[in-house]
Design a protein that fits this description.
two-stranded antiparallel ribbon
Length: 136
């Protein structure tokens, strides 16, 4: 049942593509002898007649080019946003690393001071113990 449903979907899509291609070909074929004059930002002479098929193909190509430029710009914008997020994460990691290094240095200094105090305290205790011992 699933395979037959997939076959129907494939055949429907294929039929749709063929019908759209046929419609485009029909429009181009039926307008092959028609001409038009139009203004395009002063780049064209309005007295000169231009083939409609050329206008249709040029419009399609320009639309495709505009879509490509738009998608390229959208991709660049998205990449810039991702880059900003990554840079922010990198700055946070660096700040955390700096904090971690400072804390480890403080811990080490505290441990050194505690060790020094313990050494001097044990040395004083041993000196006192020596004096408490009976003298021969």
């Amino acid at each position: 049942m699933i395979i037959s449903w997939k076959q129907v979907k494939v055949h429907l899509r294929t039929s749709l593509v063929v019908m759209v291609a046929f419609a485009i070909a029909m429009v181009l074929f039926m307008n092959r002898n028609n001409t038009v004059s139009f203004w395009f930002f002063g780049l064209t002479d309005t007295d000169k007649k231009i083939n409609v098929v050329g206008v249709i193909v040029s419009t399609a190509a320009a639309t495709r080019l505009a879509w490509w430029v738009f998608s390229l710009g959208w991709g660049i914008w998205r990449d810039m946003k991702e880059l900003q997020v990554e840079q922010q994460k990198e700055r946070e990691q660096q700040a955390n690393q700096v904090r971690e290094n400072r804390l480890s240095d403080m811990e080490r200094r505290i441990d050194d001071k505690v060790d020094q105090l313990n050494e001097s305290g044990t040395q004083a205790d041993t000196d006192e113990e020596k004096t408490d011992l009976p003298q021969p």
